[in-house]
Amino acid sequence: MRKVAKKQYNIPMLGEKAPAFEAETTRGKITFPKDYEGKWVVLFSHPADFTPVCTSEVASFASMQDDFKKLGVELLGLSVDSVRSHLAWLKTIQEKIDFNGYHGQEIEFPIIADMDRSIARKYGMIQPKMSDTKAVRAVFIVDPKGLIRTVLYYPLSTGRNFAEIKRIITALQMGDRYGMETPADWMPGDKFFAEAPENMLELVEALLDDEDCQDWFFCPREIPERNRLN
Predict the structure, then answer these.
(1) Spatial distance between the Cα atoms of 139 and 194, rounded to a whole number of angstroms
(2) Is the peptide bond before 33 cis (omega within 30 degrees of 0)?
């Protein structure tokens, strides 16, 4: 008997180029990531329009639009529903939903209509053990060079933590700008770890001068005020 080839479900890896696509959205046609060159992007998927958890998430993103703008971040949603469905759903959210700081603000970010699931498959959003027809709750943080910097997947039943998404972006931006690494539970304003000097003598001198050093590999440091992101 002829063997039937199994479908492949690829998941983009950290540091790789974000898979390219063209799509219709609630804000017109886009080409990704070309249209977003030079910008940070949060590309996120939701399972279905007109569902409670997804509604709470879109409302939460909408309530934080200004926070993401201050970080230079564009938001881009996706589900396998049509543009018409998206638009009707967004209208309902704006007219009726009050949740977590959202009180009818205009939802400015586009939501992709991925009815053939081609984009969802490129990004590993269709996971058969969860659903063959709906996208899981995925989050891809893409940097200004179009590289994937963070990948998060949530089950269909569990809403995302939006403060954590913002925290990750802030940590990535600080790391890129100032050569820093962030410890467990880091929050903006907390101490960080600087990249260790390659020269051993420089490392020893840094240890002698730094009162915060607990050992040669563990030296928490304050972020200079002039280097803080807003």
Answers:
(1) 27
(2) yes
Catalytic residue ranges = 54
Is 42 in contact with 151 (CB distance < 8 Å)? Answer: no
- Which residues does 89 contact at the CB level (< 8 Å), separation at least 6? 49, 50, 55, 81
Q: 136, 155 in Cβ contact below 8 A?
A: yes
Q: Which two tokens stand for residue 177?
A: 């700008």
State which H helix or E strand residue 24 sits in: strand 21-25
For residue 53, the tally of other CB atoms under 10 A from its CB is: 16
pTM attached to this predicted model: 0.86
Name every residue whose Cβ is closer than 8 Å to that of residue 154 and which is 6 or more positions away in sequence.
136, 137, 138, 139, 160
- 13 or 6: which leads in pLDDT: 13
How far from chain centre, in Å, is Cα 61? 11
- pLDDT at 8 (0 to 100): 56
CA distance 65 to 62: 5
Is 92 in contact with 62 (CB distance < 8 Å)? no
pLDDT at position 199 over 60? no
Q: Encoding tokens for residue 124?
A: 């590993």
* Residues 158, 165: Cα–Cα separation, whole Å: 15
**39 with 72: CB under 8 angstroms?**
yes
Phi, psi of 110, rounded to the nearest 5 degrees: -75, 150
Instruction: Give buried/exposed letters for 125-162 (b at 16+ CB in 10 A, else e).
Output: bbbeebeeebbbbbbbbbbeebebbbebebebeebbeb
Rounded to 10°, the helix 52-63/162-178 angle is: 40
**CA angle, 47 as apex, 69 and 161 as ends, to 5°?**
45
